[in-house]
Write a structure and sequence with these properties.
By secondary structure, this protein is an alpha/beta fold. The protein has helices spanning 16-29, 47-54, 80-85, 96-102, 106-119, 131-135, 139-154, 180-195, 199-204, 218-222, 239-248, and strands at residues 5-9, 37-41, 60-63, 90-93, 122-127, 163-166, 207-209, 229-232.
Length: 250
């Protein structure tokens, strides 16, 4: 059985005061979460605070990006070793906003995935199609290309050390959500692509849904056989909503 993973992606939100209140709320209700693993991926500048607040709890934490470089003259970048210094377990790589707004292509994302994995972090690899690509009927080609880049760079067994998050770009921050059937179809396709290389890796791989999952739709999405959790954006900024999603996983 794959343990569901519910991971909050705070994006560029939060303040030290707000974060304390949010995490206190999540900690207060985490005892009611019976099945899911829970994590929060926060802006770099809050990692020290989050580490202090979450150490000793069942809640993991991580970052939203990292550099493919180990160290050196890369002003403004953050390395895997730096994230480990602050107790990170997870790091998001290839989020659609990184791909579309900052030009991170599939080969670069694959490099970041492997750098994170080699360092001992668990990368959450985001894949997904734009509205235009969905309307063109090329969702599967787009998603396959994004996953194949990692397989070609690191080998299929590398995926066993990470997580995949399917995020239809057209459903992020728009209020639109793929229907449970649409989401399941792509999740099943992703698992099927990996089965072609290694059935055991495919069976054990957690595939999250990352397109505007919220307290109202989480249970229906998470009931699908190939949806193994959620990468949660806006709803992760409200303790009650986030905990409702966590409780729905399992």
């Amino acid at each position: 059985m794959r343990q569901p993973l519910i991971a909050g992606n705070w994006k560029m939100n939060g303040s030290r005061t707000d974060n304390t209140v949010l995490l206190d709320g999540i900690k207060a209700g985490i005892g009611d979460v019976k099945a899911a693993e829970v994590a929060v991926c926060v802006p770099y500048v809050y990692l020290a605070d989050v580490q202090l607040q979450l150490e000793g709890t069942s809640i993991a934490w991580g970052a939203q990006n990292l550099s493919k470089e180990e160290k050196g003259a890369f002003t403004g970048e953050i390395s895997a070793a730096m994230l480990l210094d602050f107790g990170c377990k997870y790091v998001i790589v290839g989020h659609s906003e990184r791909r579309s707004l900052y030009g991170e292509d599939a080969p670069l994302v694959a490099e970041k995935f492997e750098v994170a994995r080699q360092a001992g972090l668990k990368p959450i690899l985001c894949v997904g199609e734009s509205l235009e690509e969905r309307e063109q009927g090329i969702t599967e080609q787009v998603v396959a290309r994004q996953i194949d880049a990692v397989i070609q760079h690191a080998g299929v067994t590398a995926l066993a050390d990470g997580v995949i998050a399917y995020e239809p770009v057209w459903a992020i921050g728009t209020g639109k959500t793929a229907t449970p059937e649409q989401a399941q179809e792509v999740h099943a396709f992703i698992r099927g692509q990996i089965v072609k290389h290694d059935a055991a890796v495919a069976e054990g791989l957690r595939i999250q849904y990352g397109g505007s999952m919220n307290a109202a739709n989480a249970a229906e999405l998470l009931a699908k056989p190939d949806i193994d959790g959620g990468l949660i954006g806006g709803a992760s900024l409200k303790a009650e909503d986030f905990l409702t999603i966590c409780q729905a996983a399992g």
